Amino acid sequence: MDYISTRGSAPALDFEGATLAGLASDGGLYVPREWPRFSADEIAAMAGLPYAELAAKIMFPFVEGSLTYDRLLELTRQAYGRFAHKAVTPLKQLDEQQWVLELFHGPTLAFKDVALQLLGLLFEEFLGRSERNLTIVGATSGDTGSAAIDAVAGRAKVDIFMLHPKGRVSDVQRRQMTTVLAPNVHNIAIDGSFDDAQATVKRMFNDHAMTDRFAIGAVNSINWARLMAQVVYYFAAGLQLGAPHRKVAFSVPTGNFGDVFAGYVAAQMGLPVEKLIVATNVNDILHRALAEGDYSQGTVTPTAAPSMDIQVSSNFERLLFDLGGRDGKALAEQMAGFEATKAMQLTNAQREGAAALFSSARTDADEMAQAIRWAWENCGELIDPHTACGLFAARTAGIDASIPVVTLATAHPAKFPDAVERATGQRSGLPARVGDLFEREEKCVELTGDYESIADFVAQHASPKI
Ligand SMILES: *Cc1c(COP(=O)(O)O)cnc(C)c1O
After folding, report:
1. Is residue 50 part of a domain?
2. Which atom of ligand 1 is nearest to the CA of 415?
3. Which of 123, 169, 391, 443 is deepest in the core (most CB within 10 A)?
4. Among candidates 355, 293, 347, 295, which has minimal Cα distance to 324?
5. Is residue 112 annotated as a catalytic residue, yes or no?
């Protein structure tokens, strides 16, 4: 399989190249040249497979040419062997129609582990084939940083530098990053906000003094390999609920449009999907885009579901590309317009294509708390505030009663205990596997937000690219 850029002018790359590059050189995002498709018989034959084997079957068409099937299976067994539940992403029934797919059984208690555990192994695999080193630089408001650090800690040829705003991530989130003592992990607490940290990272990607010496890589969901790994659990849930003979709807708590785009890919690959419900909090750019065709950036309002406090959804570009006839030149113009004015209208083709598969809903603070309370009082389940947005959207989407609706549970409730306690009076304890988090030693440097001091620190501690 080879990969092309959504903006049409970067060179096509194989899977290995697209994984190491992250962003395409024309500013676009890599997508497979075509969607692989499974027949109904092929899907039916996957029922009952262990998760790691299902993962290898679903992903093999995307990696062919860069990995053999057997090697891919070894990597999925290693990645998913670290999950605390044997089913990796267990499915739970809430009532006659509503289900939750628990994606938080990985090492850092958020769904990002499902993709990042594999991505860490892919980096190591591909870098091991040459003399290259990779320097990952990222900014985090919490979940991405801990999942990425866990995934690459101790791996050869990779260094990770993760910036977080000092004092503005939760204690659990900070400790999940700073108690990882591997020498290739560098936590940097900066004076300033998440946006300041993010701006520093973007500047480093464009700083030739840095990029000439270091191969700077990305771990956020602009990296195709992350989305690919997320396609698997849509199939896992669909198969358990009767696919390919029965349709399933999914409700997805959404920020950067990565997780729900993986659901779109599953549908393109042959999984019978009734609807993909895009659930946002009050930061509702995607709800406005899907309901009215208006993709315009507002200001970010902080909520109890911080990983969805986003006003630009990078992966939406991948959907617009596919729905717009895969015309890279036209999309490059559309995106240039958005970057200049912070607003754009979807074309008719994009609006109609999206309406065929997607619906959307916006959840405010009261509705979020109501959904947490409903799951606890009616089903005895504690859910986190992100999942609550998904469940609220699922229960109000008007899906035909004969069709099961699966809400993706993206974080463990213990990651956001205060919001859960406010809604239910219950405090969710940390699972035993992370239980000694508060006794472990922390390692973190504190730097001012000043760009030069951060670039100097990275240059002193990273390995040059060759
Ligand atoms: C990252 C994250 C999301 C949003 O996922 P996207 O792929 O960015 O849409 C939702 N919930 C939680 C808990 C997250 O960490």
Report:
1. no
2. 13
3. 391
4. 347
5. yes
User: Residue 312: which domain range?
Assistant: 87-110+224-424
Question: What is the pLDDT at residue 97?
Answer: 98
For ligand 1, is residue 287 a contact (CB within 6 Å)?
Answer: no
- Bridging pattern class, strands 445-447 and 185-190: parallel
Query: Does 451 share its domain with 400?
Result: no
Phi and psi, residue 311, nearest 5°? -120, 0
Q: Is the CB of 404 under 6 A from ligand 1?
A: no
- For residue 173 and ligand 1, the question of a CB distance below 6 A is answered with no
Ligand 1 centroid distance, CA of 389 (Å): 11
Pocket flag, ligand 1, residue 38 (CB < 6 Å): no
**Is residue 49, in this structure, part of any structural domain at all?**
no
Characterize the bridge pairing of strands 91-93 and 98-102: antiparallel
Residue 292 forms part of a structural domain:
yes
pLDDT along the chain (466 residues), means of 10: 96 95 86 98 98 98 98 98 97 98 96 97 93 91 90 94 89 93 97 82 86 89 94 98 98 96 98 98 95 92 89 92 97 95 96 97 98 97 97 98 98 94 95 87 94 97 93
Same structural domain, 153 and 281:
no
Whether residue 326 is found in the same domain as residue 273: yes
CA of 341 to the centre of ligand 1 (A): 26
What span, in angstroms and rounded, lies between the C-alpha atoms of 45 and 379?
33
